[in-house]
């Protein structure tokens, strides 16, 4: 079975900003229609047997914030802002309006996902990254091949014999086979490099003056072999006996930063709660008990006014990838009952 896992929050935000002028039935719809358009293209390229969309839950990231207060501070993350934007219908500021509009369009997308037999999950406080990681760590479906669709480079640490990542920029598939060619080091070192770099988009500081480039320059074996931090420290002490360089001290002194970053960034130990675990188990194994048809999905599409963006003669082509998923999920449900 081939499973496409989509970082839903990233896809809807990307389309919300990319298609700002899109309106249907007097409402903004760049995020919602754009989501379907993007998803249709990805399904057509990957040809999966099932699709799972993971969303950031309400106030997602709160668990990481409790550990590290600067988390997402550069995005002006206000842990009360989401409540405020929804309770005031987004009327008090442009930022509130954006949050409110994306929330509304997300609900529209969920309607379509149900029609298309596409599995989707969001859990309060849990980030999509963690839901995706937990699915991968938990799934015991025989011979499952998983493709992650997201721009978030955190996911490269999950690349394995059964997990690949589809780059949205060039539709290149990052696999365990081509990982080293693309990044210049084995996948086993991805988390360690990430911890040194930090993550500017999430306001997680790394070890200043230590980059992937400098690490590979001074420790060329990192391009070939798996490294643990303790091994790196030991080599720093050995190298210091021959030549004193600042990078060796920075690596040794960066221990607390690296351990903190490992706790925040290690997707093989996702931030998850019992509710999320239960929801992921359902989404992995449960059949979808519905009786929707592609016609009902088309009717919903027209009722939302989205047909203004797709010529009538191309509607069947637009819906063809979703029709495949409907059939595959109905087949899975039939086999499950046998």
Short précis:
This protein is an alpha/beta fold and 338 residues long.
Search tags:
8 strands; alpha/beta; DNA polymerase, domain 1; 9% strand; six-stranded mixed beta sheet; 15 helices; 2 domains; two-stranded antiparallel sheet; 338 residues
The CATH topology of the largest domain corresponds to: Rossmann fold
Order of helices and strands: EHEEHEHHHEHEEEHHHHHHHHH
The separation of the N and C termini measures 18 Å
Annotated CATH homologous superfamily of the largest domain: 5'-nuclease
- The domain count comes to 2
What is the overall number of helices? 15
Overall SS class: alpha/beta
What's the number of extended β-strand segments?
A: 8
Helix content: 40-55%
Beta-strand percentage? 5-15%
Strand arrangement, major sheet: 5-4-1-6-7-8
CATH architecture of the largest domain: 3-Layer(aba) Sandwich
Biggest sheet, in brief?
Answer: 6 strands, mixed
Shape: globular
CATH level 1 name of the largest domain: Alpha Beta
Average pLDDT number:
92
């Amino acid at each position: 079975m081939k499973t496409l896992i989509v970082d839903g929050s990233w896809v809807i935000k990307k389309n919300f900003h990319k298609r700002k002028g899109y309106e249907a039935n007097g409402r903004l719809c760049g995020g919602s229609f754009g989501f379907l358009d993007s998803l249709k293209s990805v399904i057509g390229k990957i040809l999966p047997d099932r699709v799972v969309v993971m969303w950031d839950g309400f106030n997602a990231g709160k668990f990481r914030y409790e550990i590290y207060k600067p988390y997402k501070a550069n995005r002006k993350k206000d842990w009360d802002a989401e409540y405020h934007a929804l309770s005031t219908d987004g009327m008090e500021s442009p930022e509130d309006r954006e949050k409110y509009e994306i929330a509304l369009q997300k609900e529209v997308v969920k309607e379509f996902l149900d029609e298309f037999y596409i599995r989707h999950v969001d859990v309060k406080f849990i980030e999509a990254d963690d839901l995706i990681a937990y699915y991968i760590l938990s799934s015991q479906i025989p011979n499952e091949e998983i493709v992650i669709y997201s721009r978030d480079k955190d996911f490269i640490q999950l690349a394995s014999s059964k997990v690949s990542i589809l780059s949205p920029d060039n539709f290149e598939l990052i696999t365990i086979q081509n990982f080293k060619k693309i990044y210049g080091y084995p996948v086993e070192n991805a988390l360690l490099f990430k911890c040194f770099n930090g993550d500017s988009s999430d306001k997680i500081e790394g070890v200043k003056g230590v980059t992937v480039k400098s690490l590979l320059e001074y420790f060329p074996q990192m391009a070939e072999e798996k490294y643990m931090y303790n091994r790196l420290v030991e080599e720093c002490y050995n190298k210091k006996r021959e030549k004193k360089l600042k990078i060796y001290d920075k690596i040794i002194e960066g221990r607390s930063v690296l351990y903190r970053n490992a706790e925040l960034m290690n997707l093989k130990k996702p931030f998850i709660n019992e509710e999320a675990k239960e929801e992921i188990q359902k989404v992995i194994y449960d059949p979808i008990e519905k009786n929707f048809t592609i016609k009902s999905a088309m009717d919903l599409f027209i009722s939302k006014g989205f047909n203004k963006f797709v010529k009538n003669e191309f509607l069947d082509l637009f819906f063809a990838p979703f029709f495949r998923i409907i059939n595959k999920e109905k087949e899975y449900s039939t086999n499950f009952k046998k």
